[in-house]
Amino acid sequence: MAGSSLLVLIDDIATLLDDVSLMTKVAAKKTAGVLGDDLALNAQQVTGVRADRELPVVWAVAKGSLMNKAILVPAALLISAFIPWAVTPLLMLGGAYLCFEGFEKLAHKFLHSKEDDEAQKAARKQAVADANVDLVAYEKAKIKGAVRTDFILFVYHPKVHNTASFPTF
To answer: Fewest C-beta atoms under 10 Å: which of 85, 86, 88, 156?
Structure first.
């Protein structure tokens, strides 16, 4: 009798450990998706910046990204706990914004001439090469864009957020 209850206890512990390992695997997969986006985002935002300014720009983007996550994670938990019906409309709004951004990129590609794009690129290269030009405003604009992109990718990334990923209480 005592041996069978010990076996039941060991079975319960094994089942619990199996559940914990499965949840850890899912969390690690989602974290890897977020980190992969952050790495790609940081590498993209450093293009067009002087070599001696790359680390400060990456650091500023990382601080902005950390601030996004410090705000968004508690907000997502609160929304899913107190107003779970709002999750779907919020995700739909974000998806509509991403559609707008995609349309804007396509419209720019097809409606702007290559000469304008090349002239803008040449002016940017000349400004980066000139030591007398202060590129602080340019860097701030790139940092702001990177933090905004990080916000959108974190909230609407399919690997991180799906309807099952918002915890319900």
So the answer is: 85
How many CA atoms lie within 13 Å of 72's alpha carbon, on the beta-carbon side? 20
Give yes or no for a contact between 94 and 155, defined as CB atoms under 8 angstroms apart. Answer: yes
Number of domains in the chain: 1
What the block records as the tokens of 40 is: 């790609």
Q: Give a yes or no: residue 165 inside a domain.
A: no
Nearest of 123, 116, 129 to residue 49 by alpha carbon: 129
Rounded CA gap, 129 and 125, in Å? 6
| Model confidence, pTM | 0.56
> Which domain covers residue 75, as residue numbers?
2-156
